[in-house]
UniProtKB/TrEMBL annotation, chain A:
Residues 20-439 form the DUF112 domain. This is Putative tricarboxylic transport membrane protein. The chain crosses the membrane at residues 20-53, 59-82, 109-132, 144-162, 169-186, 206-224, 259-281, 322-343, 355-381, 387-407, 414-442, 462-487. Keywords: Membrane, Transmembrane, Transmembrane helix. InterPro entries: DUF112_TM.
UniProtKB/TrEMBL annotation, chain B:
This is Putative tricarboxylic transport membrane protein. It comes from Halobacillus dabanensis. It holds the Pfam family TctC. Keywords: Signal. Residues 1-23 form the signal peptide. Gene3D superfamilies: Bordetella uptake gene, domain 1, Periplasmic binding protein-like II. The keyword Signal applies. Belongs to the UPF0065 (bug) family. The keyword Oxidoreductase does not apply.
Length: 505, 333
């Protein structure tokens, strides 16, 4: 059967009334669950699996896919409004989204997030449709040495995630690396830094750290500064309207990150988180005013939001065309396929074109639904900020606790959350940035694993790390992204000095 | 306002703690017969989507949908520590309504020193299914069968990289070691890497690793597409199935070793005979049902029912065999 014929079958599934109805149900459920701080796509998919029992597989999977990207779409809400990221893919969205909301532009921030998500989602679906079969080769093109180089590139972000002292950023990153080593070391099977506690054997969950360092630390800060009325125009949502200038700002990051995010999403293991971080730093690097990043920059919000949604579509490439789940979320997604008796893999496109193309075609509709549903809802969602502050603070605390408890139903994680909350508050007090901690924690584990896999396979030959063009070019980009800003800063400084000199004379 | 926050957090913590540890004793008739008087909770000591979770959910579904139990059956995921978090949960709640599903890691993890609880601390109720390991290579690999692979490994163990999902000393590693040892490979020199998130299949497809030690079902789609080749499986004899039926066993290639990925159910340590008999009977009904036969076919599992007594003996034997292998590897703690 030709690809065209299969595609038509898929379009039929996606545009049947069941198709449209269940995409709608999927994306609504996904966004709502994703908006809750602490609940992300994994919980959303797991919650929805029982509903699919007995449904037609293609329609059911169209719905499940909707739940997945809907949750990523909605996930930015809690990052932006409450600084409480529910999934790792939206941590980077809080860097500029939360300051923007604090400044009284919550409506605008949510609108930027929704539009960038829509663009990232839609462009990547087009890419998915055109190249999905061909891209399965790209998905397996990265071996451990290439992953190591990619993580290395991600790490160069640490320097750019620090507002003030680079030393402080490096210190928190080191602690992040240390936290990543806790648990069973998968290359040897030995336990590290668990102190005999079985709860630490699997390591610390990302969500515990993110909610502790961001949400709880923010809460502590707000409570202790409650008398300080200068803390901005709280409750002010601002206008939803984006000016032409705003759109102009967004255009660049949206275009670039749709492609970059998609490619990173295709690589198993990289996914939305790394795409959003790399999207953020790459935009900061090429921005004319990098100083605005971290203080509510439009580019700084549009970049990660475009990238994480583009990566979500990208993740369907290895899942559908190879049957390889590239992340915990797609592993649960794979489970949803198997429950329905569908085995994703190289033959899915030929065996079940209705499923393969149905999911892809439905993602167009899903993304349009998401935009149409989300934009009018923004004023209502943003009203969360109008809730009296004491109430809001308690709500965030409660949701953070529930989100963490829902990971593994263990009270131990709740204590850990509190510990990280206190740590996060202390870090803020002494102006240590939290972002490098999170970044090092996410990248550190994968970086260590891929380094050791490479070295085991090469019998300890370190040259294996730089023996192919892909890793070499990734290292070159890393070095460039490190050196270029330094040179540019120096030039700027010289320039300023010259100006001052000429002023003085 | 600080008080309000503290208070609400505290209430929530207390509430959640209370939910987590409720336990009651249940009625046992005078004649030793036992009926559950509340919902049965099957613990999957791992996250959603894995082998334990799938087994727990499919058995739970059949129990409920075929009306085999009068009570509802719920599945709870207790992830962590390669299973030990779930095991210590069942052990500490010590409630005959809480049972869990397990497989060879129940032998490996205690031997690794990662759990103080072993299969002897629980009551084996019944084994349900058997699954087998498959050793896959890329379709352009030079080996056509296990003997060719093991010949190369005997000559130079460092020339072959084996990849699996679990850590050394757990299933993917040990199932390969068990077969390789029988073939005469120096098992201490086997190069094994562990790769999560679907990394194993990726690594043999792009040539980063040579052999993927995994379950049979994980290889089927790639074999059908002609991307990978299965050199051997660890079953006693060939397994029925469209693609799986073509996988040669290690035994038929002259390597006299097998490895079974058994999966069955366990209850807390001190259960009465009536309670054991109840679960044995209900699980036997599941195993014999048509609905469960369909589940087995879907996932490519073999039927392998063992009652409590047979299962205990089997487990003791497993521990002895695998324990001596791990001792040789220096993984035994």
């Amino acid at each position: 059967m030709g690809a065209m014929e299969g595609l038509m079958q898929g379009v039929q599934v996606a545009f049947s009334w069941q198709g449209i109805l269940f995409v709608l149900i999927g994306v609504i459920a996904g966004t709502l669950i994703g908006m809750m701080p602490g609940l992300g796509p994994i919980s959303a998919i797991a919650i929805m699996i029982p509903i699919t029992y007995g449904m037609d597989p293609s329609v059911a999977l169209v719905m499940m896919a909707g739940v997945y990207y809907g949750a990523v779409f909605g996930g930015s809400t809690s990052s932006i409004l409450l600084n409480a990221p529910g999934i790792s893919g939206t941590v980077a969205s809080s860097f500029d989204g939360y300051p923007m909301a604090q400044r009284g532009e919550a409506g605008k921030a949510l609108a930027i997030a929704a539009i960038s998500s829509f663009v990232g989602g839609t462009v990547s679906v087009v890419l998915l449709m055109l190249f999905a079969p061909a891209l399965s080769q790209v998905a397996v093109s990265f071996g451990p040495p290439q992953y190591f180089a990619l993580m290395f590139l991600g790490l160069t972000a640490i320097a750019s995630l620090s507002d003030g002292s680079t030393i402080k950023a490096l210190i928190t990153a080191t602690i992040g690396f240390m936290a990543a080593t806790i648990g069973i070391d998968t290359q040897t099977g030995t336990t590290r830094f668990t102190f005999g506690n079985p709860n630490l054997l699997e390591g610390i969950d990302f969500l515990v750290i993110a909610l502790g360092l961001f949400a709880l630390a923010e809460i502590c800060f707000l409570i202790l500064k409650r008398k300080d009325t200068s803390l901005g125009s709280q409750g002010d949502i601002g206008s939803l309207k984006l000016s032409k200038a705003d759109f102009k700002e967004m255009r660049g990051p949206m275009t670039r990150q749709s492609f970059l995010g998609f490619i990173l999403g295709v690589l198993p293991g990289a996914g939305a988180t790394i795409a959003s971080f790399i999207g953020y730093i790459s935009e900061k690097r090429i921005a004319k005013k990098p100083k605005e990043f971290g203080k509510g920059s439009i580019k700084g919000l549009a970049a990660p939001e475009t990238a994480n949604n583009a990566a979500t579509s990208g993740a369907f490439v290895p899942l559908l065309s190879l049957g390889i789940p590239g992340s915990g979320t797609t592993a649960v997604m794979l489970g949803a396929f198997l429950v329905l008796g569908i085995q994703p893999g190289p033959l899915l496109m030929a065996d079940r074109p209705d499923v393969f193309w149905g999911i892809i075609a439905s993602m167009y509709i899903g993304n349009i639904f998401l935009l149409v549903l989300n934009l009018p809802l923004i004023p209502y969602i943003a009203k969360i900020l109008k809730i009296a502050r004491p109430m809001l603070i308690s709500l965030v605390a409660i949701f953070s606790l529930i989100g963490v408890y829902a990971i593994s139903f263990s009270t131990f994680d709740l204590y850990l959350l509190l510990i990280f909350g206190v740590l996060g508050y202390l870090m803020r007090l002494f102006s240590f940035p939290a972002a490098p901690f999170i970044l090092a924690f996410i990248l550190g584990g994968m970086m260590e694993q891929s380094l050791r896999q490479s070295l085991t396979a090469s019998n300890g030959d370190i040259m294996a790390l730089i023996s192919d063009p892909v890793s070499i070019s990734l290292y070159i980009v890393s070095i460039l992204s490190f050196v270029v800003p330094l040179i540019r800063n120096r030039k700027n400084n010289q320039h300023q000095q010259e100006e001052q000199n000429s002023d003085a004379s | 306002m600080k008080k309000l926050w503290m208070f609400s957090a505290l209430v929530l913590v207390l509430f959640l703690t209370a939910c987590g540890s409720s336990s009651e004793t249940s009625g046992e008739g005078e004649d030793g017969e036992w009926q559950p008087d509340k919902n049965i909770e099957i613990v999957a000591p791992a996250g959603a989507g894995g082998g334990w979770d799938t087994t727990a959910r499919s058995v739970g579904k059949v129990l409920e949908e075929e009306n085999i139990t009068e009570q509802n059956v719920g599945v709870v995921n207790k992830e962590g520590g390669g299973g030990s978090v779930g095991w210590s949960y069942v052990d500490s709640t010590n409630n005959p309504h809480n049972i869990f599903v397990s497989s060879p890691p129940l032998i490996f993890v205690p031997l690794n020193g990662q759990s103080n609880l072993s299969h002897e601390d629980f009551t084996p109720l019944a084994n349900m299914i058997a699954d087998y390991a498959a050793f896959a290579v890329a379709e352009d690999a030079k080996w056509e069968n296990l003997n060719e692979l093991f010949e190369d490994m005997k000559e130079d163990p460092s020339s072959v990289t084996v990849v699996g999902t679990s850590a050394p000393g757990s299933m993917d590693h040990m199932q390969f070691v068990a077969i390789a040892k029988e073939a005469g490979v120096d098992i201490q020199k086997i190069k094994y890497v562990s790769a999560q998130d679907g990394g194993g299949m990726t690594q043999i497809l792009n040539g980063s690793a040579d052999v993927y030690s995994t379950g049979m079902a994980e290889t089927v789609e790639q074999v059908r597409a002609g991307k990978v080749r299965v050199l051997g499986i660890t079953a006693e004899e060939r397994v029925d199935g469209e693609v799986i039926g073509e996988f040669p066993t290690a035994k038929e290639q002259g390597i006299d070793a097998t490895f079974v990925n058994w999966r069955g159910f366990f209850g807390p340590g001190d259960m009465t005979e009536g309670q054991v008999a109840y679960y044995e009977e209900k699980l036997k009904e599941v195993s014999d049902s048509e609905a469960f036969a369909e589940v087995r076919d879907n996932y490519g599992w073999d039927e392998s029912y063992m009652d409590s007594e047979e299962y205990s003996e089997f487990l003791d034997q497993q521990r002895e065999e695998l324990g001596s292998l791990m001792e040789e590897l220096g993984l035994n703690q």
